[in-house]
UniProtKB/TrEMBL annotation, chain A:
Pathway: Protein modification; [NiFe] hydrogenase maturation. It holds the Pfam family zf-HYPF. Signal peptide: none annotated. It catalyses: C-terminal L-cysteinyl-[HypE protein] + carbamoyl phosphate + ATP + H2O = C-terminal S-carboxamide-L-cysteinyl-[HypE protein] + AMP + phosphate + diphosphate + H(+); an acyl phosphate + H2O = a carboxylate + phosphate + H(+). The lineage of its organism: Bacteria, Bacillati, Chloroflexota, Ktedonobacteria, Ktedonobacterales. This is Carbamoyltransferase. Residues 209-402 form the YrdC-like domain.
Length: 789, 335
């Protein structure tokens, strides 16, 4: 078409922001312009992409539609601004040079799983990248983990040490090529290589294929290997090999917490677990999180992989190396045997995952039989994301690789650039500017020095990457959180403290752009309350500006502070003492019969003299107490739990073993809602519930049945409390957050009940309901409060 | 709420209120005692050490000691940590109306004996009686003067990367003994307060290691965690501790397990931390072992350059756990 002679010739300037660089966006625009016969140009600048297109109105409309509907897989448009400008009458469409500007708003994309095109080439013997473990293109490959600085260019990534060969360079410079400006572009001639370290020597002389065959044979023979991935090292072994799995537990000092698995394909996953359509989509998405799936009854995976759980955390391969390994592992096994690898984070116990080669050698080499490593450096550590489908929706348990650092869009402009420091465990921080909240990758437990260091360095890195200079710093009210201490010691003068559970609820409000007040249900482990007590089951009216606490669980002492969290039996005893007084010792159930009386005697004295026994309204602790009453965690009667939340998790697992017959019997345990005289506040009194559970134990009811009834009762209690608050306030939207809502049974039961009451229910979809979501909530509240000033 | 409990909030109170108001070079060093020359010169020899402390312990009598003994030992120890031989003490009493005279006699006798044993003289004093309810039995203030034996600079600004951290004995005895006595907990225990005058131990360390000693500190309120954090901040270095090497009596460890407390945050009254040059670490340790108050001494860690201002523990499986000073009561952080 000859556009110059078109009677309705128009020209548009289109500014696009979002994830539009390094994702094949300009070639896409070029292709579309050609397709619709448009002339003009496209270029990248630090704010995004600028396009000018000229042609007929109809062609321009089609082009705009394609922009919205036919994006390259990794691209995401946050905003499009179109204006009409004077036609220039060029004859071609060109990709112009990138323009630098002093703002650098372009977004760094998350690391992305190998795309189908690259996968085809990887396994095509005729392709020059056949079997090359670092194949990638603009649609896939490493991003966030290799970026050292902005703008996103090869020399600002850890790929800068690999000059491209002429063939790669041609691809890189060809605007119609799938590898046009793919910064990590590489091939076997010019790119990174894998090598194997067996403790004494580094072997890199054999071909990659030989190396991989050798490795999978070792794995098939029961070896434990460290494997360098995208955001860090994994520890791998054959998940069907009971002995290897046990070995791995010992060497890693991880006694009970489940290991994640990697399987070659969806079919294999289906032989281990029930996989719904939604779960299959999540497993196969280019973000490739670990997805928690329900195990099949005859699941062949070693029981030590996920003890006491009826779920498995499964992911599909997301790097070319993973694809090569898993495919080769299948061939190394006996025919008909399933290829399932444990792929757990490369660390000891609760340390952060190793990602630097030197560090990995020091820390991991002593506990593995060999290390599959490479000479491509990881700049940013990034753990695997963990998700599940709960009440029909995706829920994050950990938001990290594949998602970070993609910003979460806000429904309003931040008045100032802000930094929110998040919680103490499962930490993420959040930097915000404009309408974007950059929630960091999973940082972890700040009590660990290395994690604390990566928290501080991560903040600097994000500030630089996204050009954010925070003018106010936001923190949790808990004076002992290291994130709080960091905020209070910071040079940023304006500091804003946010209550823990208000932040949890605000994370939901921020995700959904909710401005109006809602009823917030924060069901949590522990958080610092404004009365100095340890909160954790708070039903409030809240918007981003503030909250009012209208109902909470009866205060029970945490005898020995954190020790009462590590030892759920303390909570069970404290609840019994609360309900029965000191006579509880005469209550004939196994728990009291096995209780160490001398120890309890001291605890009782601590409780009465308020010695390190802060009051708590935590729902997580009630779950702990009920678990301990039922003898959970199994085999740990009066010792420490082996990981955070173990007792509550085992209680949920037991509840899922309830038979259909048990589930159909809808009788709930009793509870009371005590109105505090002269106040709007209701205390949720579970003393009758505890008595009824004790009675059920005495009647010999089974653990699954009691656990199931307990879950339903708590759901009913929370739903009733919301119902009462609606009577007082007229509010009919409910936001649910807090770590306890990782419990799928509870969440499903509660949502069902709330919807039966005609509530509109909102939950976290973009950040975890646990403390990993706090930083987003903190940021949103601080922004709202600053705007209101 | 917890401004007196000795951790970070006391630290903040000092940094926020007293230090700016009273600021001068001697105070600003923030050591346990000020050292200076009477003639006003900066010469390092023949300095005096001067310190004061107030004692408000409850209960007044506890296994291993009483408030009077504590008041004498505490001030002697603050002088000793400056490398000084304690010479003279002053005593001030604030008595609550109706305080039993027998108790007062007992306390005074205990102080006299403690001073005599330590070879220091109580040379001046003062007494005030306040209305019932305006004080809790008896409060005692002591001040002390000593002659500095160290002819080099010591203090929490003198730490250097590579230095070794020595601890003179097991931690937590005093705080746990007090807690048991105060709360009348029915724990079968013979944990006794470790209250003791440390100046002869210090004298033998100075003899043995000389200017290799960079800093001495008695980890009283807030325990080893607080003392080391103050040093890390004062010298802008980090302190790396080896968790397994820190001596703790099994009874104290057991009590901490039940109470949910960290022995490293619990008060001591007869222990010292010595930060010494690596070359004299073994000599210093040997000198501690040769003294009755240092028999169970151990090298517990190392001073590092990075990350400044931090104290951390190498745990038994090799992890590095941050050891901060407590702001207030140890509320749980696990969510
Ligand atoms: Fe929380
Ligand atoms: Mg003192
Ligand atoms: Zn690709
Ligand atoms: Zn190449």
């Amino acid at each position: 078409m000859d556009s110059v002679t078109d009677p309705v010739l128009q020209r548009q300037r289109i500014l696009i922001q979002g994830i539009v660089q390094g994702v094949g966006f300009r070639p896409f625009i070029y292709g579309q312009a050609l397709h619709y016969g448009l002339v003009g140009f496209v270029f990248n600048d630090s704010q995004g992409v600028t396009i000018e297109v000229e042609g007929s109105l109809l062609a321009l409309a089609s082009f705009q539609r394609a922009l919205r509907e036919e994006l390259p897989p990794l691209a995401r448009i946050d905003s499009i601004a179109t204006e009409s400008v004077q036609p220039c009458h060029e004859t071609t469409f060109v990709i112009a040079h990138s323009q630098a500007s002093n703002q650098r708003y372009a977004l760094i994309s998350p690391d992305t799983a190998t795309c189908d095109d690259c996968l085809r080439e990887l396994f095509d013997p005729a392709d020059r990248r056949y079997g090359y473990p670092f194949i990638n293109c603009t649609n896939c490959g490493p991003r966030f983990t290799i970026v050292q600085d902005v703008p996103y260019d090869r020399d600002k990534t850890t790929m800068r040490t690999f000059p491209m060969c002429p063939t790669c360079l041609v691809e890189y410079e060809d605007s119609l090529n799938r590898r046009f400006h793919a910064q990590p572009n590489a091939c076997p001639l010019c790119g990174p290589q894998v090598s194997f370290y067996d403790g004494g020597t580094t072997i890199s002389t054999t071909t990659t294929n030989d190396l991989i065959m050798r490795i999978v044979q070792q794995l098939a023979a029961g070896a434990i290997l460290a494997i360098k991935g995208l955001g860090g090292y994994h520890l791998a072994c054959d998940a069907l090999n009971t002995e290897a799995v046990q070995q791995l537990r010992q060497r890693k000092h991880r006694e009970a917490k489940p290991f994640a698995l990697m399987v070659p394909d969806l079919n294999t996953a289906r032989q281990l677990c029930v996989v719904s359509a939604a779960e299959a989509t999540l497993l196969q998405s280019h973000r490739r999180p670990i997805v928690l799936l329900r195990q099949l009854p005859n699941c062949p995976v070693a029981s030590g992989v996920s003890p006491a759980y009826n779920t498995l955390g499964i992911m599909l391969p997301y790097t070319p190396l993973h694809h090569l390994l898993l495919r080769a592992f299948t061939t190394a096994l006996a025919p008909g045997s399933l290829a399932v690898l444990v792929m757990t984070s490369g660390n000891l116990s609760d340390e952060p995952i190793a990602y630097q080669d030197d560090d990995a050698r020091t820390r991991l080499a002593p506990i593995v039989d060999g290390m599959l490593t490479s000479n491509r450096d990881i700049y940013m550590r990034c753990d695997d994301s963990v998700m599940h489908i709960s009440a029909g929706n995706v829920q994050f348990l950990r938001r990290s690789r594949g998602y970070a650092p993609e910003p979460i869009p806000l429904s309003f402009d931040l008045p100032l650039p802000l930094l929110a420091c998040g919680g103490h465990l499962k930490n993420t921080f959040c930097l915000g500017k404009g309408r974007r909240a950059f929630v960091s990758h999973h940082i972890g437990d700040l009590e660990n020095l290395e994690t604390l260091t990566s928290f501080k360095e991560g903040i600097k890195h994000f500030q630089n990457l996204f050009d954010i200079d925070p003018q106010a710093i936001v923190y949790d009210l808990h004076p002992e959180y290291l994130a709080t201490k960091y905020a209070l010691d910071s040079a940023i003068p304006q500091k804003i403290g946010i209550q823990h559970h208000h932040a949890h609820i605000a994370s939901v409000l921020a995700e959904h752009g909710l401005q109006e007040p809602v009823i917030g249900v924060a069901a949590d482990g522990t958080g610092y309350g404004t009365d100095g007590a340890v909160w954790g089951c708070e039903i409030m009216t809240a918007n981003l500006l503030g909250f009012e606490r209208l109902a909470y669980l009866t205060y029970i002492p945490l005898i020995g502070g954190e020790q009462a969290i590590r030892q759920p039996w303390r909570m069970a005893a404290a609840y019994l003492a609360h309900v029965y007084g000191s006579a509880f010792l005469e209550v004939a159930i196994p728990f009291t019969q096995q209780l160490d009386r001398a120890k309890w005697h001291i605890l009782a004295q601590m409780m009465s003299s308020h010695l390190n026994s802060p009051p708590t309204s935590s729902l997580g602790r009630l779950f702990d107490a009920v678990a301990a009453l039922l003898g959970l965690p199994q085999g740990l009667a009066q010792s420490n739990v082996l990981y955070e939340g173990q007792a509550a998790v085992e209680l949920e697992m037991q509840a899922t073993y309830a038979t259909d017959a048990m589930q159909e019997e809808t009788e709930l345990y009793p509870f009371l809602m005590d109105r505090i005289e002269g106040q709007m506040t209701t205390v949720l009194n579970v003393a009758p519930l505890i008595r009824a559970i004790v009675n059920d134990i005495q009647q010999g009811r089974t653990v699954p049945k009691i656990a199931y009834r307990f879950h339903c009762t708590i759901a009913e209690l929370l739903a009733q409390a919301c119902h009462e608050i609606r009577k007082q306030t007229g509010l009919s939207s409910v936001a649910l957050s807090g770590g306890v809502f990782q419990n799928r049974l509870l969440l499903e039961q509660l949502i069902t009940r709330l919807e039966a009451f005609s509530f509109q229910v909102y939950t976290n979809r973009r950040v975890p309901p646990n403390d990993g979501g706090l930083s987003l909530g903190q940021l949103a509240i601080a922004a709202a409060q600053l705007r209101a000033i | 709420l917890s401004h007196g409990s000795g951790g970070k909030s006391t630290h903040n109170l000092i940094e926020g209120v007293f230090a700016p108001a009273f600021s001068n070079p001697l105070l600003d060093a923030m050591d346990d005692a000020a050292t200076f020359r009477v003639d006003g010169t900066d010469d390092i020899d023949h300095r005096l050490a001067f310190t004061t402390d107030t004692y408000v312990v409850s209960p007044l009598f506890f296994p291993g000691g009483d408030i009077g003994k504590l008041a004498v030992h505490g001030t002697i120890n603050d002088l000793a940590m400056a490398g000084a031989t304690p010479l003279y003490l002053s005593v001030g009493f604030i008595l609550e109306e109706g305080f039993p005279i027998v108790d007062l006699r007992r306390i005074v006798a205990s102080m006299a004996q403690a001073a005599k044993e330590a070879g220091v003289a109580i040379v001046t004093g003062d007494t005030k009686v306040v209305q019932h309810g305006k004080a809790d039995g008896v409060f005692i203030n002591t001040a002390g003067i000593g002659l500095v034996r160290a002819s080099w600079l010591m203090g929490q600004a003198q730490l250097e990367p590579g230095d070794k951290v020595l601890l003179s004995g097991p931690v937590g005895d005093h705080g746990i003994a007090i807690m048991f006595a105060r709360e009348a907990l029915d724990i079968e225990s013979d944990v006794q307060s470790d209250t003791a005058p440390l100046h002869t131990l210090v004298a033998s360390l100075i003899e043995a290691a000389g200017e290799g000693i960079h800093c001495l500190k008695d980890p009283t309120r807030g325990g080893v965690a607080t003392s080391l954090n103050e040093m890390a901040l004062g010298s802008e270095v980090s302190v790396a501790l080896d968790e397994q090497s820190i001596p703790v009596h099994p009874e104290v460890r057991g009590a901490c397990e039940i109470l949910g407390l960290d022995p490293l945050t619990i008060a001591n009254e007869g222990k010292l931390l010595a930060i010494v040059a690596p070359g004299v670490a073994d000599t210093t340790l040997q000198a501690m072992h040769n003294h009755p108050l240092g028999r169970d001494a151990a090298i517990i860690g190392t001073i590092q350059a990075e990350p400044p201002g931090m104290v951390f523990l190498r745990t038994d499986i090799g992890g590095l756990r941050v050891l901060d000073m407590l702001v207030g009561d140890p509320l749980p952080r696990i969510c």
